Amino acid sequence: MLSSTGNYFEPSLSFPPVSGARIIIKDDLGHRDTLTETVAGTYETTSLHGAVGRTYSLDVIANGIEYTAISSIPKKVKIDSLYATPRRTSGGETGYDIWVMFKDPPELGNYYRLNVNVTSLVSQDSVDGRRYRIYSDKLTNGNEITERVRAGRLVVSGDTVTVELLSIDKAMYEYFSTLRDVLSSDRAATSLSPANPNTNLDGGALGYFAAWTIDRRTIILH
User: Fold this and answer.
1) What mean pLDDT is predicted for residues 195-202?
2) Residues sharing a CB contact under 8 Å with residue 129, sequence separation 6 or more, in sequence order
């Protein structure tokens, strides 16, 4: 998705799509693909497919400006176990704790993002308020990692929980880590002026370019 930035101080923040850009993705084997615009601002590959261990470069020319970035696809890490346990607070409210387990590889330098979504039978209530669940193996290298996600009080038996474990590169990890910090500081009385998260895009663009692997598991709450 390619879009223009918006004014942070505007009440109705919008990001107009950018059409007519030239976007090329190349891998480290010399293959290249010029992306096709399917709808305004959305571009798709026609021949190039992602592969573990490959490094990809992005070249974008939009409105006369060139932007570049590089990303590599890490080895896929699978979810070993996914289960949920009922929870009841001291005040009598019920809910679920969702447990996700996966094994970090022995080599140092692995990064992850965890997405948790609930398809509810009765409400739009979801999981706890953490915007971005990202992890580094800096302190847990080679260990079995267990993460708990607290489901909202309106999540009930029969709802479907889908968990996605993304194995990402360092650049994507740093983008979401700094983005999380920026969003969290907005609520603090001593928060700093608005700042942009780190990006691997050269040329003054915001956002990120990333290639990753994904493992997905689904359970139905009982």
Assistant:
1) 90
2) none
